[in-house]
Structures are given as structure tokens and as C-alpha cells.
Design a protein that fits this description.
By secondary structure, the chain is α+β, with helices and mostly antiparallel strands.
Amino acid sequence: MDFTFTEEQLAAVEAAKAVFSGVAPDAVPSPALTAGAVAEDFDRPLWARLAASDLLSLVLDAEHGGAGLDPIALCLVLRESAKVLARLPLLETSAVALTVQRYGQAELARKLLPAIGRGELALTVAANGRTGHDGAELAVTARRDGEHWVFDGMQTGVPWAPTCDRIAVPAHTADGHTVLALVPRAERGVTLAEQISTSGERFAELRLEAVRVDADAVITADGAWEWLRNLLATGTCALALGLGEAVLTLTGQYTGKREQFGHPVATFQAVAVQAADRYIDLRAMEATLWQAAWRISTGADSALPVAGDVAVAKIWASEGVRRVVQTAQHLHGGFGADTDYALHRYHAWAKQLELSLGSAAAHEEALGDLLAAHPLGQPA
């Protein structure tokens, strides 16, 4: 497989590395030592630096002030952000922006996208439904009322919701069609009940009671929600990969310095084999990530729909990121639990990513259903 990236994509990586180089993973209180949220807001100064470096407009078309790059470039930047545990709604904002650009009305794109690129708007997505197990679009109802749409329902675990400007909410109509509404956080009828993520960030339970949204802020095009959902999942896989790579680097540095019986523990076969296994996990996570990102970016035909590639990436990311941090904790010994050391923060973030991705068993079942429904050798 050819994983050679374009010059523009590599330039985005270099810009991201420059911005994230000054970010400290322990810049906020530890979630292990904090009863509530680790901070009231996401990292606004970092958000401004991303905007100044044109990374928030990376995937926007030139007419909206962007560079016109694809989801692969976004995943490359997300990978770098996770290495330093950057506290940002970068995935959610960029994914919604791409969806608006691809499926939304021209007026909505002109209204939102330039402001997103300048860092003036932050967006999130209600993608977990009522429980995190059922389809998110089933948790909210939508009905047309003249020049407005009216929404009722509830979504749980909405990331960054208390501090983002708009929330993308999937909903179903009476005839089973799925629409996607960009609901202002302060809209009448919107209630946010604060929830705290495993990583210590502010999430929210979102309740909608007869919330009226202008028709031009509702995306009704077929496939919009499915495309956004696949992009969110693939972006989360990119975050898992970046975090896992940072943790394995941290582990290599520690075991290379820690000595037992006069030798670095990294030279012991049992330690080296465990680290090598985790390296293999990361390479599998990387290969499946880029396959899914490539399918989303290009729309290329295959024996399975894009959801199949996304399911494979989620299987590896969910299992892989858990194994990487567990092995890191084991090889660090008691030092890995020290709250003055960064590893426990990575562990909390890894668990949050694993929860966001869902269980590998569920994705394996979904993949099996896709294989049964699409005979191999025939384009999906």
C-alpha cells in the first residue's frame, strides 16, 4: 500500500507540529485529582494559534478562505494534536465544516465557514444518541413547520457542548428521513446538563424541547449524516493513533533509562517483546486509518461501502489504544500511576477515545453484516 502523502498534506503536518510543540499535556489539573472538569473551557489560546496558522481553514475550499485539503490532511493534524492531548473541538468543528461544505446550502456555507476558519466559531456534534448504543438520529424527532424545523429529543455525551457555539444534531422525520440541524447552543428550548468525560472535559446531555431552527440551518441532503458519522469515527481513530504513538515513545524513553541488575530494562527480552507487540498494533491502526480516510476523501469504489473500512479502523483503534496504554502502565511499574507523570493523563484520554469508538466486538458484528450483504468482488 502506498502511504505517500502530498506536499500540501506534509506541509499541514509541519504546521501542526509547530503549533503543538509548545503544548504541555499537564497544562490543566489532572482528571485523577479533580472532582469536576479540569477546566471551564477548551484551550482558547491554542485555538487562536491554529486559526492564525490556517489550520482551522485547512479543509475549507478557497472560496471560504481555506486550503481545500481533504479528510486525510485533517487526520494528519488530529494525529499530531493527540500526541500532546490538545484540548480542542478540532475534530468536531472540522468535520461539521466539511459536511456543511459538501451537503449544506450555499447560504449556510457562506455564513459559517469563513468564521470557522478565522477561529470565531466552534462546533460540536451530538453523535451518541440516548445511550451511546442506538443510532443518534433516532434519539431526536424533526418536523417541518413553514420556514423552520422543530426538534424534540435528547442526546447524551455531547463533547465540548457547554462551550461550543453550535451543535450539529441528527434527527429523523416521520417518514424515516434523516436531517442534520446546526442548533445554536443558546437557542430557546435547548437545555444542557453538564457531564464530565473520563478525560476530565466538559461534556453535556442535550435536551431539545420544541426547538425551532431556521430551514437554511438544516441539512436535508441524503447521506449527510452517514458521511459525517464516518468522518467523526475516522478522526477519532487518528486521535487514538497519535496518542498511542506518544505513549509508546514515552515508554521507550523510560525503559531505556530505567535499570535493573545493571542493565536498562528495555534490553530484557520480555520488555522488548511487549513493546514490539504494541508497535505492531500501532502500525495496524495506521494502515486501517489511512484506508478509511482515503475512502472518505476519494469516494473510491470497493467491495464494501465506506462503513466497512471505517469499522475495520475502529476495531484496531479501540483495541489497539487500550493495549498500548495498558502495556505502558505495566512497563512503567508504579511510576506509571504517579500523578506528577504524564502517563496517567494519556491513559484517561485513551479510555475516553475507546469509549467514543465503542467496543471492537460490535464493530466486528457490523463488519460481518456488511460482508454478508455485499459479495466480494462486486463494487458496493
